[in-house]
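User: I'm putting together a small comparison set for a docking exercise, and I want a reference complex before I start. The sequence is below, and the ligand is orotidine-5'-monophosphate. Could you produce the 3D structure with the ligand included, as structure tokens?
Assistant: Of course. I'll restate your input first, then give the structure tokens for the complex.
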Amino acid sequence: MSNKPIIALDFPGEKEVFTFLNHFDEPLFVKIGMELYYQEGPTIIEKVKEAGHEIFLDLKLHDIPNTVKSAMKRLAGLGVDLVNVHAAGGRAMMEGALEGLEAGTPAGKTRPSLIAVTQLTSTTEEQMQLEQKINLSLLGSVLHYAELTKHAGLDGVVCSVHEAAAIRDLCGESFLRVTPGIRLAGGEAHDQKRIATPDGAKKDGSSLIVVGRAITGAQDPVSAYRNVSKLWGE
Ligand SMILES: O=C(O)c1cc(=O)[nH]c(=O)n1[C@@H]1O[C@H](COP(=O)(O)O)[C@@H](O)[C@H]1O
């Protein structure tokens, strides 16, 4: 897996995806999320892979262990590089996800890396405490989920840049900290609450950054991508 900025392809369908990708003449690391996957199904994965790009399939599974295990068995056959679940599904669910991925990975192929969402980057500490009734600081909750994820044997977590260094200190450098909520300085936050710049992410311990609207919504997406890559140091 490379450490290029991961571009979130939050588009309604294949047509918009390839209009966007055709601006680039290099292999990218892209994220396919719920909107696109639910619209196009697994064929979008095949087509984006054929075009030479690495893929983070972001479906954030969260269900009983057996259901997640079976679903992961199917996703393992798609040949993506990275997949995710919600850590709130618990340790048994995460262990099931890993077992499913291992069982479903074709012989001779590498198992996709598996990470778990801790607290979404659109969540504030106040919201978390009021709505989820978690009696911890936001950092405390994220660190708790990171440790649970590590004990379940997963490869890392999704978190915000604000928690990345503390997770690295707790779980080790090789445990991935994948951080969305990335904005260029002065950029619109939209629905994100825990945001940081690409250079801030590098400095504060992210392993990989996920960038959507700061690139896909830019007037010139290629130059926005170059700018993000330069600040991230790639
Ligand atoms: O798992 C994710 O990718 C994810 C987790 C999270 O906590 N926050 C988050 O924003 N994401 C995803 O990262 C992308 C961020 O997009 P932008 O806010 O447009 O940069 C979206 O596709 C989200 O679904």
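The chain has a mean pLDDT of 98. DSSP finds eleven helices and eight strands in the chain.
User: Thanks, that's exactly what I needed.
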